[in-house]
Design brief:
With about 160 residues, the chain is an all-alpha fold. The chain folds into two domains: about 70 residues, no CATH class; about 55 residues, Orthogonal Bundle (434 Repressor (Amino-terminal Domain)).
Length: about 160
Amino acid sequence: MLAKYIQDANTDYRRIRQRIPLGPLRTAANYNRAVTVLDEILDEIGQQDTHPLADLAETLGLFIEAYEDAHVPFSDSSASEILRTLMEEHALKQSDLSEIGSQGVVSEILSGKRDLNVRQITQLAARFGVSPALFMPVAKKPGKRPSPRTRVASQR
């Protein structure tokens, strides 16, 4: 009887994997597809933690995070640092980003004096073809932040 359940699970899992990259993400194409699917799922479920797809979204998010930890060099960078790097890679000037605001606004964002808002994050993600999560502040994982004593010692 257990063999039948495993066989059915294998069939169902293969069918799901054709639509959702549910598993370790090994290529940029799989990563991009996973981000797109996660965005669609999040649009569907909104803030409903009890939605039937909430666990799927969380699981897919974990695979995306694992890929980003291994392949995306921006994980510890601020939004302004990421934007500056993307601008350099695409040979853009502040005036080229008029969709997020005036040159003064862009300057304030790049200097860290102003945070990106949701509209700006959405537009930048679309412009550069990246996940909006790239520009969102990330809470530091516990245990990774050095203690004040360690930071003071390392600054000497």
